[in-house]
Amino acid sequence: MEFNHVPGQKGPAAENVARLYQGGRPRNGWLPQDTRALAQKNQAVQVVEVTHDLAQHFSKVAPSYRALRTTDPEPVRYIADLLQPYRQIVAADIGCGAGRYDKSLFDHIGEGLFLYCVDVNTSMLDELKSHVGEQYDGRYNLVMGQADDLPLEDESLDVVLTFNAVHHFPLQAFLKEACRVMKPGGYLFIYTRFRSQNARSIWGQYFPRFTDKEDRLSESHVIREAVAVVAGLTLERIEPFRYPRRSSLDRLVEQARGHHYSTFNLYGAEEFAEAVEEFNEDIRRQFVNLETIEWYDENSLVVVRKTRLDQ
To answer: Does 254 reside within a domain?
Structure first.
């Protein structure tokens, strides 16, 4: 793999590649148009409403998103170690949100990284800019774009990354797009949580209907099968991560009410209020010290490679 981008050289201006969106909201959400064409009219309307609600959700939580969510440095260190032999890297973070992983990527990979920060939501991109700031000016571009129709050139990237966002994408279309924009030998890193891992989290165990509501997550075999049918992609490994967590009940309730997971946006208002109360009561029954509630979170890093031309 050749890394020939000059660090500090800006790519195309964001306004020149923001070609699919109006007012910071996706015209078609994260869903490909052929999927919509196959849906019945009432189903299509429901999909649009859900996507619109999620767009509103992310706009609303953007200012507090980084404070509500936990950013794991371990997968970033893992990625940085794997890319250590390469001096210069042109990459894109798809579904970058407020940039909580992008700053970590710059810190761990170093000056050789140039990053396209891609998201559908202008509020999130505004937060990213304020978070990353002038410290990394000239080393990143803000790009509005969809995961299944990336406004990036063919074979222009050494690395494509996505952190805790792939469940918002049409998986097959995203993988094809990632393959298109990657150079031969390029890496695709997908940091996610599988459905079974989600079920073992504090929310999956104790928050009513959380696992049932969150039906967008995949299992590892689904991702393996999806990668296998994209010509040019090879799944190299799936690296598991397990984190000890500690929090107070008050903090957990604060996170839930702040909708730190978009899953909570799938509840109706009254249903959510009742679920919070049930969660509160259940935690009080299960844990003695409500200031020190401990559990484990699990995630996985999917490492995919684009076939080299000489293979």
So the answer is: no
